[in-house]
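Comment on both lines for my students:
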Amino acid sequence: MGPAELVGPLQISVWWYVAAAVVLLAAVLNLFAPLLRAAAGSGIKSRPRIPIPVRSTYMSRIAAVESKLDAGEADVRDSARELAKIVREFAHHAWGVKAEHLTYRDAAVAGLDDLAESLSGLYEAEFAEDDANDLAPQIAGARKLVTRWS
């Protein structure tokens, strides 16, 4: 085998350079993707959508408490307890928060300000020294909580 019979090295196709550049660009974008998303403003968390059956179930439960209160079948204190239970269960189903024994301060510390506000209003009716005679603002607050997070 002499020098005349040897074949020179084959040239690399231009497409290999293009493919290498695309892979390198993808790696760099993947590395800086969190920074690009933060700069684009996607760091703002949107509220999660709550399924309509969850919303309608809790709205009907609130309406049932209101109708029992209006009919005189339950007093204000018991209705406030029932509303607090409904609001806590809603927080559990809507956000996955274990809220069965959650106080309004715990909710505020956890960043659930709407829930804390609703529970705070219910505490006033539930633990008042004298019998409260109107639960309408608390019922409206519970409805506002359910509709706001829907």
Remarks:
- The chain has six helices and no strands.
- The chain has a mean pLDDT of 81.
